[in-house]
């Protein structure tokens, strides 16, 4: 069991938003944002979630006959029917024997899609996994506790089922208030609650991976964790006694891009990965939920 990553791509957005943008509309400062989040900038998309996802899908390299699954992770899609994944299936003229679906786990979505793909695919079969978010469309720009945190983005991968190391942990704790949004409303987050949840539960989830795999912490080469806040990453590293240098980071440039966070990070840091590396993926989000994976690259 396991997954091999055959291709990894991201969309390069042009509309870069520096922290100074918020200093003009909110009672905040560049120093305040950086000191509490580690974020210096983020990108806001002009395109829709569907447009970004289709553009990304067209960039990926794959054998159409091997694709058996398309999953798109997003909580900000403008589309209700058909699914963005179904649209991609049509635009790419994929095999009709291909399950295509959107999933909404917010920030947990991409790692959740990895886990679903690994369990669905048979040896040699492939999946397209895409995460696309336009969070700028659901932000309350009068709320400095949330609006400064988020950015837009899109990235995706082509994966193939293999038989390398693959250990997972999936948890849903149940919390409808910590991170929520109803149709027609802005996204709402109880920042302190999410922070406490992340620094408590994420290390426990990753520890479980070590216990089940028998892999030692010092054998881990890289950690690709959800880019929500640099202080959360520091706390996870400290609680695990795992060198922070093993944690890949780009939250300073992109902010929190929800489901797109991990694949964007992967696309930007893929050159650091080599065959045989022991890699951890972990993301947390609405639900409250956590998905973690320990795999051999």
From TrEMBL:
Keywords: Acyltransferase, Transferase. GO terms for molecular function: 3-oxoacyl-[acyl-carrier-protein] synthase activity. Gene3D superfamilies: 3.40.47.10. It comes from the Bacteria. InterPro entries: ACP_syn_III_C, ACP_syn_III_N, Thiolase-like. Residues 211-297 form the Beta-ketoacyl-[acyl-carrier-protein] synthase III C-terminal domain. The keyword NADP does not apply. One of its GO terms (biological process) is fatty acid biosynthetic process. The keyword Transcription regulation does not apply. SUPFAM superfamilies: Thiolase-like (SSF53901). Residues 102-163 form the Beta-ketoacyl-[acyl-carrier-protein] synthase III N-terminal domain. This is 3-oxoacyl-[acyl-carrier-protein] synthase-3.
């Amino acid at each position: 069991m396991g997954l091999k990553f055959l291709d990894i791509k991201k969309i390069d957005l042009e509309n870069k938003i520096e922290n100074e943008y918020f200093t003009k509309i909110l009672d905040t400062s560049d120093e305040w944002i950086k000191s509490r989040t580690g974020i210096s900038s983020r990108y806001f998309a002009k395109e829709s979630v569907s447009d970004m996802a289709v553009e990304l899908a067209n960039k990926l390299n794959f054998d159409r006959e091997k694709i058996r699954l398309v999953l798109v992770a997003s909580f900000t899609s403008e589309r209700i029917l058909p699914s963005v994944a179904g649209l991609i299936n049509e635009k790419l003229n994929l095999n009709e024997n291909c399950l295509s679906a959107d999933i909404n786990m917010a920030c947990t979505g991409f790692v959740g899609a990895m886990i679903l793909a690994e369990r669905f695919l048979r040896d040699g079969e492939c999946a397209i996994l895409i995460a696309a978010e336009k969070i700028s469309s659901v932000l309350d720009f009068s709320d400095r506790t949330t609006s400064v945190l988020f950015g837009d983005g899109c990235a995706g991968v082509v994966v193939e089922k293999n038989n390398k190391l693959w250990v997972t942990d999936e948890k849903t704790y149940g919390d409808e208030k910590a991170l929520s949004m109803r149709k027609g409303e802005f996204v709402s987050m109880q920042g302190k609650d999410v922070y406490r949840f992340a620094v408590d539960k994420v290390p426990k989830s990753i520890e479980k991976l070590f216990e089940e795999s028998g892999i030692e912490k010092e054998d881990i080469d890289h950690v690709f964790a959800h880019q929500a806040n640099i202080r959360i990453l520091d706390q996870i590293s400290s609680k695990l006694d795992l060198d922070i240098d093993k944690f890949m980071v780009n939250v300073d440039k992109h902010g929190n891009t929800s489901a797109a966070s991990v694949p964007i990070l992967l696309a930007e840091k893929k050159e650091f990965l080599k065959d045989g590396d022991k890699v951890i993926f972990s993301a947390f989000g609405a639900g409250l939920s956590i998905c973690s994976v320990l795999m051999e690259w």
